[in-house]
Fold each of these.
Amino acid sequence: MQDEKLQGNEKIEAAIAALQKEPTQEMLAHVLTVIRRRMKEEGELIVAVEPFSGDSRLKLQAIQTGDGSSWWAVFTSFEEEMKGAEKVMSTFMGSIRQLFEGALKAEGIKGIILNPWNRTLMMDKTMIRIVLGDY
């Protein structure tokens, strides 16, 4: 069973798969367009969160890459989330627009890794601004 706010995210997965097969600027532009359309359709993504610490504030889970950069881990579907060797402990669903706007404001975060285990797209803050239409 799939949450209705996630229905349509398979288009994002398919676009990323096409980009992985044919990594061109045109295919990247297509992926960003598909993500923008899902955002405008009020689509949502699944966000990994850290277990609650003493301050009871919700903290989004970050993945650290080899260069030391931190990225939020975000998924298009529960199936994508479960593909990782490291199972995500807690998640919530959030609006694509709000997640992107939050990533732009977050200090110490380079961007969002969409589907870190499989249909992966690393969206730095420039790519996020493009999707939001800030460019």
Note: The chain has a mean pLDDT of 87.
Amino acid sequence: MILKGTKPSEVIEKLMSLPEEMRLRVADVTMDLSNSMEAIAKSAFPKAVIIRDCFHVIQRCGEGIEEIRLRLKREAIKEQKKEKAEFRKKLERLAKQRKAYRKTHKRPKGKKRGRKPMRLSARFVPSTRSNEETKVESLTRCRKQMLKSRDKWTNGQEERAKLLFGEYPKLKEAYGIINSLRGIFKGKSLTKDSAKTRLHEWYDKVTESTLREIKAVRDTIKTYEDEILNYFISRATNASAESLNSKLKAFRSQLRGVRDIPFFFYRVSLVFG
């Protein structure tokens, strides 16, 4: 079913039109960290177990890393602007020195000129690292990389991460903490109780950290802890639905917007049906 909007009252009204016998057969409902989705599930499917999807939990962790990355990027941009300003001052200083020198010294005719001086119009080129990227470029290009597990990185991404983690230990610490949480959800032999023990150990690791962004993620997970741990009962996830949703959004963006909605659904049924 596809509904316009996410107002709980409207969604509940549509779901309640289904026979009660069918709604009571629903065993579990996977959802994001939205409270409105919880209200819908409890009203329409009273016997269902609510599962806060691990996909959305890791996505929330990614938001924490993204905040750190953007903060570091802003600092890197400030540094680059400072370097550019110092470069400009250097050019102006050299231009003044040349002007003063010409007033007191005249070059003999026929004598070749020395090294070509740097002009005021010289272009500033920021310094790069061994992977031929500036700090700002590396922090920009690592956005999607920080959301992936390390085994999915390419060789170029490995090199970039090595340089970034060496320069920004806080980014390395944040990625390590989030990766350890991802490892809990990947544990195939974990039960709800053993996963809870692992999760509380992860809380302790976050408490030792000084990263406020990661602590905010921990507080969010604590709020929905029991519903998140329900994942280890049936291992249910709506990752496939999220994947289809992202494909639909990409398809919509290719069309530069949608005017004729029925025709759009017709095309969707042909492409994805």
Note: The chain has a mean pLDDT of 88.
Amino acid sequence: MYDVIIIGAGVSGAATARELSRYNVKTCVIEKEEDVCCGTSKANSAIVHAGYDVLEGSLMAKLNVRGNQMMEELSKELDFPFKKNGSLVVCLSEEDMPKLQTLYERGVKNGVKELRILNREELKEMEPNISDEACGALYAPTAGIVCPFNMNIAMAENAYVNGVEFKFDTEVTDLKPIDGGWEVHTNNGIFQTKNVVNAAGVYADKFHNMVSKKRIHITPRRGDYCLLDKSAGNHVSRTIFALPGVYGKGVLVAPTVHGNVIVGPTAIDVEDKEGTNTTREGLDQVIERANMNVKNLPMRQVITSFSGLRAHEDGHEFIIGEVEDAKGFIDCAGIESPGLTSAPAIGEMVAQILKEKMNLEDKEDFIATRKGILDPDTLSKEERDQLIKEKPEYGNIICRCEMVTEGEILDAIRRPLGAKSLDGVKRRTRAGMGRCQAGFCSPRTMEILARERNVSMFEITKSGGDSKIVTDYNKDSL
């Protein structure tokens, strides 16, 4: 019998697990994929929003601002990349300037600090590649950019080190009330728990509706993106938004913490909760709208395109709390943008609900910090030479585009909740995320995975499940 089972190992589930690991409570995270960060959390804009555009008084607004305030300290504690680079909402016509004022006033009401409206000259000085049509912008210095993979992985690793269990490749199929709690039915057996936290992303409505007569409905909202090479990394220095519309913040142009430029997303409602395919129409829309706010975007430098799904709840609001007609079932549903920003505050809120419900006591030996994978580029020449002398694998470059060494890949595999697939290594080290998109390093990374996991190359997958790269057909033909 667990005290808490969390369904989903995305940022919301991992943040909740990390916060719960502060207390003496038996917690387990159940995830249907082979790793953490395999759903919405792996495919988003990687933006830490300031909080000026969310409806004042909403839970979204409260948790957005709180999450923004927590992010810098959290990134230091858990050692993941974060940069407070600021954001600009660009206005392309004098007629729309009052809308900037409305956003400014909303931001002030939400508690966003340092907001100000820039005129054309100030904007052009700040961002030389801004559109010539731009006549002003709302500037939010507290906005930032983050690595969503490392943030998610860092919180999960820290939770694991502090005693939280993780069960991967385990899909929840049913939920049954029992005396004092719940039975969680999965493809890998039945688990019992006093409380369930529903952090299942686009599937959160499915689990909520299993246990409650008060239905909720989540629409998967697809967002298409283009990622530009690092050679385009200096085209903008801040996150550039268009004025928000009915489907949200629109297409943005932003630097990433790793030196690329990201462009997107679209906002296209789909029925398929796994529908992450990109479309020509979607990517054309991304390019067209991005060029409205930023001129001379070097779109020939696109190295990959991808899409992610946002869990859009019909009321466009986070649903967090114990379900009235399902005691011990805590929703963490409808977590769409600004969900990544809000995640630390969401975890804090859910953990507080459970702390009060179960009278949890603080853990005396809670470990608050975590050290990420060592990047040799952060060392001095003398330190790096000494590292390679002691551990020669740090002198063996596996991914030439991102200059990732064998030592880093070994760390990614061996550390808590270590990588088991090519995508697991990629999210932890960036091996395969560069200009050639894994064309060079995949075979070498597969060799390391096979050796470290003591399995055949034929068992290595791209992202778990049936995504094997070398097929049995190839094996028989050799």
Note: The mean pLDDT is 96.
